[in-house]
Task: structure prediction
Amino acid sequence: MSDFYKTAVIGDTASVSGFAALGLSVFRETQPERISKLINRLAANNFAVIYITEPAAALVSDTIKKYRSSPLPSIVLIPAIEGNTGDGMRALHEAVEKAVGSDILN
Result:
């Protein structure tokens, strides 16, 4: 693997377009099969962090689970403009609790 890692954002156009201004690679995708293939391709191409909107993540939960035990990429759920599930916040609470021993966000 290279020492140069990249960051991507996946989701609907309205939710992810602004991330391009931050220099992130933006992928406007809402079709489950395409999202799964995209995640696999990004993982194989030095993307260390993949942000994905909650609605998009809900469509490809099996693909995301495949990478949970891998060091890279880190797949992080983010809220979308619409259709949020709350999974992103739940995952954040779980990660914090695992890291520090208690949920300090509540």
